[in-house]
From TrEMBL:
GO terms for cellular component: chloroplast; membrane. PANTHER family: CHOLESTEROL 7-DESATURASE NVD, IRON-SULFUR DOMAIN CONTAINING PROTEIN. It comes from the Eukaryota. This is Rieske domain-containing protein. Its main location: membrane. InterPro entries: Cholesterol_7-desaturase, PaO, Rieske_2Fe-2S, Rieske_2Fe-2S_sf. Signal peptide: none annotated. Pfam families: PaO, Rieske.
């Protein structure tokens, strides 16, 4: 993982002559920029970098060598089970949501609409189906009174899901809009760490669930001493493969954009405290740690090599206040969308180099970050189809994982099998068949998977198109 150092920031060189063909919709954000800092998605140290990864989970670390991990999974028993529908689910960063219109999103198989209720000044998450004829409310609009209006017949709903107006109903007739069946299902929602979250159960008994249970909180994202880079991308492979890829350091020297093809090396890992809530990860050589908070969050922290034995971040324990410590943190929110589809939200808070984000547009950083995602996207899409062919339950038989660098993937599969039913609980909505594989170019089309869902990249795309039209 490369980080941006405040004292040694590379210079930026942006091409001033643009190839018009690269401004077309399917190819947007494929420009190459020289020496833009690479915020690669690996959680782990690469040999050629000047930084070590140091993860900040407070626990006792054993330095005794361990035997190679054995890919043996515990069978489903009568112990504690993970409930996918009793967790707060991340939806989208608020920086990529437009308050002027509703947004269609799918999370854990649920079609929801996210919209800004200006009357209550909060983001709302509804079922994306009008109770009239089930038309998607996400194709509607916010009317002049701040209500969500269906585009099909104009039915209007307030922030509580109550229907406030049916244009086809006579004004002096029965108040059919007040009927219970005219209401739209509302999911409990909240904004935390600049991300909209929702509780995937619209039963009224969960209306105040936020009082009892909150989403995982990351203080550094809200800390004004940290600057933050955030983004999102829809991924054409499933949640399970996404998690595995993010916690697998061994592929980085070979699969990623700009990687060292000869950079592979043995890596020792150990899984700590694996239970229904997730697990901690220890890397012996680098004294680095990260954690998986089930089911959506993988996080870690990065700091310079000479501070590897110094203080720890707020997620850890001790601090040495005699020297200003620099931290680069990595947070991945991994969202199951549907079989063969997931969404990644990333956040990279750091407490140095604040000026960089003020002079470098967010969309430039997203070019580099998307290049990293693109590097192994096709491989992982095909891999998922092969796993589905043999059956997810046969993963440990089909895959040969003999080295300690595979410990994290094995640990995740163990958690998934032991506590979470071996796969995402789609509640019978899908047959288990993955979508067919489209052409590679379609899989790598960044416009539909990122640009339209990112306010900065979308604005840059439209701006470049205007420049192209003016220049012709």
């Amino acid at each position: 993982m490369e980080a941006l150092g405040a004292s040694s920031v590379p210079s930026f060189h942006i091409r001033t002559t643009l190839d018009k063909t690269k401004l077309r919709k399917p190819m947007f954000l494929n420009f190459h920029f020289n020496q833009i800092p690479s915020l690669t998605f690996s959680l782990f140290h690469r040999k050629q970098l000047k930084f070590k990864v140091f993860y900040t989970i407070s626990s006792t670390v054993s330095t005794e060598p361990t035997n190679p991990p054995e890919p043996v999974f515990e069978t489903h028993g009568q112990g504690e089970k993970f409930d996918w529908y009793s967790q707060w689910c991340p939806v989208m960063p608020i920086c990529d949501l437009d308050k002027r219109r509703p947004h269609a999103k799918k999370v854990i198989g649920l079609d929801v609409v996210v919209w800004w209720d200006r009357n209550e000044e909060t983001w709302k998450v509804f079922d994306d189906g009008c109770p009239h004829r089930l038309a998607p409310l996400s194709d509607g609009r916010i009317d002049q009174w701040g209500r969500l209006q269906c585009a099909y017949h104009g039915w209007c709903f307030n922030g509580s899901g109550n229907c406030k107006f049916i244009p086809q109903a006579p004004p002096n007739g029965p108040k059919v809009h007040a009927a219970k069946k005219a209401c739209v299902a509302v999911y409990p929602s909240t904004v935390q760490n600049n991300i909209v979250w929702f509780w995937p159960n619209s039963d009224p008994r969960y209306k105040d669930i936020l009082v009892e249970k909150k989403p995982p909180y990351i203080p550094e994202i809200d800390d004004p001493s940290f600057t933050n880079l955030m983004g999102n991308r829809d991924i054409p492979y499933g949640y399970e493969v996404l998690i595995e890829n993010l916690i697998d350091p061994a592929h980085v020297p070979y699969a990623h954009y700009g990687a060292d093809r000869e950079g592979g090396t043995p890596i020792e890992f150990m899984i700590e405290k694996l239970d229904v809530n997730g697990f901690n990860i220890v890397q012996f050589q680098e004294w680095s740690r990260c954690t998986f908070i089930a089911p959506y969050l993988v996080y870690a922290s990065l700091k310079p090599e000479d501070q590897a034995n110094g203080s720890e971040s707020s997620a850890g324990t001790r601090k040495d206040t005699s020297v200003q410590k620099e931290f680069f943190l990595i947070f991945f929110f991994c969202i199951p969308v549907s079989p063969g589809s997931s969404r990644l939200i990333w956040s990279f808070p750091r407490n140095y180099g604040h000026w960089i984000n003020k002079v470098v547009p967010r969309w430039i950083f997203h070019i580099e970050q998307n290049l990293v995602i693109d590097s192994d996207l096709y491989l992982l899409h095909i891999e998922e189809h092969k796993i589905m062919d043999v059956g997810p339950a046969n993963w440990q038989k089909a895959c040969f994982v003999p080295t300690k660098s595979d410990a994290l993937v094995i640990g995740f599969r163990k958690w998934l099998n032991k506590y979470a039913g071996g796969q995402v609980d789609w509640r019978g909505k899908y047959s288990g068949v993955l979508p067919p594989t489209p052409p590679r170019e379609q899989l790598l089309n960044r416009y539909g998977s990122h640009v339209v869902n990112c306010t900065n990249c979308n604005a840059a795309y439209k701006g470049f198109n205007v420049l192209e039209v003016v220049s012709e």
